[in-house]
Amino acid sequence: MRSLTRSLAPVLVAALVAVACNAPRASSSATPAATGTPSFTGRTLNIVTGGTGAVYIVYGAGLAELLNKKLGTAASAQSTTASVDNMKLIRDAKADVAFTLADTAFDAVNGSGSFAPPEKKADAKALAVLYSNLTHLVVKDAAGINTVTDLKGKRVSVGSAGSGTEVIANRTFEAYGMDAGKDIDRQRLGAQDSANALRDGKIDAFFFSGGLPVPAILDISTSMKIKMLDLSDSVQKMSANTAGLAKVHVAASDLTLETATVGSPIDFHQGAIDYYKSKGAWKK
Predict the structure, then answer these.
(1) Which of 34, 71, 75, 138 stands 20 to 30 A from 94 (CA)?
(2) CA-to-CA distance for 215 and 250, rounded, in angstroms?
(3) Predicted TM-score (pTM) above 0.70
(4) Burial zone of 230 (CB within 10 Å; 0-12 exposed, 13-18 middle, 19+ buried)
């Protein structure tokens, strides 16, 4: 990735959230171990993640496997279109734990953005802040596209419908005085499909927000010359408005007890707070 023209906007963090009243707990029928530690054996857990070619699905599958191995749960990772739909699944009690972008979690809990009336807001709490998220805007190197405003009239994928990437893409266009519904030929593709479409000449650019590395972008960079547009000036415009997992995806190496408690726009679940306090990591 370093060999590419690289200028990404570190706008958000990725967070792990749970239904406020139904975070992962020991089964009520389970017998505590002799040490007094509750048993989670057989506890089903639906972890909603994201699409192929991105980070959430890899991270989530690794998390489910780790929980099953260490705690005996029956956790599984479900592929979705990511943040917005994940928070709707949390809201509708169809998921227990969700990966989400920070601003989408904020919108869901506060009833704004994609969760503004008549949509219902979600009753959810944060479990951990996982890693810094980077927004990518990828174009062909020789396309003559150098700024966001150069995308006017172009075919642009803004991420899957119902994804946090789409939310960020829309807000990025707004920061540059553009309307994604009018000023571009808007496509809604996931990371892998976006990369394939760019390679095949079906789109001119695509957005994706995720932790590094993004497999779909890394893959396309080996077959064609691409560049990522500088979005750093959009950040100011918008601001007014562990070892096992690290083997699954390098983004997991960002997760420590200290970083897990910093950066969430929504309140933490009491169970998470109790855990962080027991480890001396809760500083609030």
Answers:
(1) 71
(2) 11
(3) no
(4) middle
